[in-house]
Amino acid sequence: MKKANQKPTDSELKILQILWENGPSSVREVNDKINISKEVGYTTTLKIMQIMTEKGLVERNTESRTHIYSAAVEQHKTQTKLLMSFVESTFRGSTSSMIMQALGNQSPSKEELLEIKKLIEKLENE
């Protein structure tokens, strides 16, 4: 049974990021990508992807011998939902506090600062 609007775990989010970047993939392909940064067993990846199917986070195509999985949730919507939840729980809903914390802890590049300025101008003009 698919459960709508479930927040992905960290492991599930890693798999979703691989599917968003690479498109529909087999468990082996996803596992190979995960193993570039962290050693994870094939059966662990398979089990997580089966759970993700039950949650409605991925869809499984069983037409061929090798099952192919694809993301069932949109990247932008998922990132927005996770970010809003993070801002609410960590910064009591204050987006400005989060931004000030992020900018205070890192030195953004000139390109990033330009993007931030453009976004501020756009928001001011709306």
Which parts are unreliable, with pLDDT below 50 for 5 consecutive residues or more?
A: none
> Helical amount among residues, as a percent range?
55-70%
Distance separating the two termini: 42 Å
Average of per-residue pLDDT values: 91
Structural class of the secondary structure composition? mainly alpha
Shape type: elongated
Q: Strands of the biggest beta sheet: in what spatial order?
A: 1-3-2
The ordered string of helix (H) and strand (E) elements is HEHHEEHHH
The fraction of residues assigned to DSSP E strands is 5-15%
Q: Report the biggest beta sheet as strand number plus sense, adding barrel if it closes.
A: 3 strands, antiparallel
Number of helices in the DSSP assignment: 6
How many beta-strand segments?
3
Radius of gyration, in Å, reads 18 Å
Walk me through the structure.
- The chain is mainly α and 126 residues long.
- Helix content is 63%, strand content 8%.
- It is built from six helices and three strands.
- A three-stranded antiparallel beta sheet has the order 1-3-2.
- Strand 2 and strand 3 form a beta hairpin.
- Helix 2 crosses helix 3.
- The longest helix has 17 residues.
- It starts with 9 loop residues before the first helix and ends with a helix.
- The mean pLDDT is 91.
